[in-house]
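Technical note accompanying the year-one report. For the benefit of new consortium partners, we illustrate the data format agreed upon in the data management plan: each record pairs a sequence with a structure-token string. No post-processing was applied to the example shown here.
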Amino acid sequence: MWRLMTTSLSQQQRLGLLLLACGLVISLTACGPISYITQVTVTATRLTAEAETANAKQLAPYEYWSAKTYLHMARQKAGTADYELATTYGELATKMARKAIDVAADGRRAGPQVAPIGKEDEQPPSLKVVPATSQP
């Protein structure tokens, strides 16, 4: 059957099929780096920079530093050609950067607000000292 197929095709057609097959194989093996480039190099890097611009470092430190750390890990994994894990870290960095931008835009952090230490106009809370009672 293969002989019938090859004899009916011209040399140009066979060369075209061979190039098409090679292109398909190359494109399938290049999926990891391509998804890494779109997810990490473009999206996660841009959103992390936007989070920094939105002052998320102070307003949403957990989300901001999580995004920065995931982005660093994604780049580190891509350096060892582990593109699947690098893309996963890139997705996590994107998610946390978006969350940092949202929290910073709201102007508040999730959780309790902590007053900065060292302001002159604020007095520390006074503690009431109660003597211990002795029991026989």
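Partners are asked to follow this layout when depositing records. Residues 115 and 122 are 10 Å apart (CA to CA).
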